[in-house]
Amino acid sequence: MNNCLIFTGNANRPLAEKICRFLGKQLGKIEVSRFNDGEISVKIEENVRGKDVFIIQSTCHPVNESIMELLVMLDAFRRASPKRITAVVPYYAYARQDRKDRPRVPITAKLVANLLVAAGAQRILTMDLHAPQIQGFFDIPVDHLFAAPVIINYLKSKNMKNPVIVAPDVGSVKMARAFAKRLSSRLAIVDKRRDGPDSVEATHLIGEVSGCEAIIVDDLISTGNTVIEATKVLLENNASKVFVSCTHPVLSNGAIEKLNRSGLSEIIITDTIPHNILPEKFTILSVAELLGEAIKRIHLETSVSSLFI
Q1: Which end of the chain is more exposed for a tag (fewer CB within 10 A), N or C?
Q2: CATH architecture of the domain formed by 4-146+288-308
């Protein structure tokens, strides 16, 4: 790993530090600052010529600042002649805008992909894309990891007596089915009807949850409305307890308080997006070792596919 250098922006430095500790490396020296008018300034403070460079940057809040910071860093490294530049994007923003679902709207997930490639990314390492087909938006290699192994190991350690995995909407069924298979549990689906962009009404439950420990699984939680409505339906159908797990805790618009006041017994999240202080109901699992192992295998040119399981 001597020829491998790891750098980070300001979006999620704690995760980058954990990854470096796992790999036994120091973070690369880089200064990412702002001019007085808010423009981003980047200066690489060590030689990267001929090196295998990994830039860790979640495109989380403030989203546009984080994306622009990543783009400026990519351009700076591209001009410093490294052997290869891999953008490690634990949380890929704008992934929900992956298609034209109504007239005259952009496909912003594709736009972000174009920007990353134009700025100098030669490989992408990311986790739990909201829409897996976004991998096809890139003309460069994409390694798409899943946080499921980390979350499933934690759920197994809880020794639940009668768990049932719940998809909070039809779009989450594939992920829920994978969890149910690994946990040898049954599957249920909440029929979600969306009244508006941030308004959700859950109207029907498919499957049996009475007397069960229901585990809602999703890739991200934004406002929390989908999860809260699903929790109400599950409790109304006599679930003994309700848990929720997600990879990306966006947690916008007062979601933390709403989830904490809900009937959920525990909210299980990962550290792809940083949060300083959370209520006791929240459990944070780290994906640093998973990302670190992927970085190691990419650098050593060995198989990454076993990490997808």
Answers
A1: C
A2: 3-Layer(aba) Sandwich (3.40)
Question: Distance (Å, rounded) from C-alpha 227 to C-alpha 191?
Answer: 12
What pLDDT digit, counting tens, does each position of 42-51 carry?
999 999 999 9
* Architecture of the 148-285 domain: 3-Layer(aba) Sandwich (3.40)
CA distance 8 to 181: 36
Catalytic residues: 192
Note the pLDDT tens digit of each residue in 82-127. 999 999 999 999 999 999 988 999 999 999 999 999 999 999 999 9
Q: What angle do CA 123, 2, 305 make, to 5 degrees?
A: 40
Give residue limits of the domains in the chain: 4-146+288-308, 148-285
Residue type, position 282, single letter: F
How far lies 156's CA from each of 162, 200, 206, 258, 288, in Å? Answer: 12, 31, 24, 27, 20
Q: Of 178, 200, 181, which is closest to residue 191 (Cα–Cα)? A: 200
